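Each field is set out underneath.
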Amino acid sequence: MKSEGDFTEHLEELRRRILGVLLFFLAAFALLFFLSDHLVAFLQAPIEGLGLSLYYFKPYEKFLTYMRIAFWGGVILSLPLAVLQASLFVYPALRKNEVRYFLFAVLAAPLLFAAGSAFAYRVIAPLAFRFFLSFSPGDNVLPFWGFGEYASFLFALMVAAGLVFLLPLFLLLLVGTGLVNTQTLSRLRPWVIMAIALAAALLTPPDVVSQILLGVPLYLLFEGSLLVGKLLKK
């Protein structure tokens, strides 16, 4: 049975790790705010070639948008460190058979999230903005997009795609821990395809091309998860 001293030591260790992540976040936030001009140029890449300009409508809107960009950029940069610190804190308590799944999840989660965000940035977002610009061109209503709303939409799209790309990892953890087996997932394939189609429809503009561009990679990730799950069990 652990003593009160051991419990206090664990709390102190957790406090140090959280403090380290917070300090890293503050440094990343300050650096990204200083480099905001470059970040804004990066965020405008999905609308390059569309002949579109962004505007701000309130005296403080541009400043607050820069703050939000630096904040969310700092969060994204801090996530790998937070995952690492949490992993080092939890690792000693894991059983032998849990270690491999835990290490796999720690390594795969940032890569999958980054892949999903990059896919949204390079593929889904440009298609979405082209769709919005080309929607009902004959009504004589001209686009006048706000900088803050544009940045919020793009961030939401990238985060949503990053989280969706984590679903295969969740399936693998269910398989690895024995809560679900690969045979059950195989039988549920039609329902999974339906769920993927629904997710693609909700996360993309209502056009078939962008829905297919998100749905097909998700389905391939599902099939890849089944294959990796079978290999892990063997």
Remarks:
- The mean pLDDT is 80.
- Residues 1 and 107 are 32 Å apart (CA to CA).
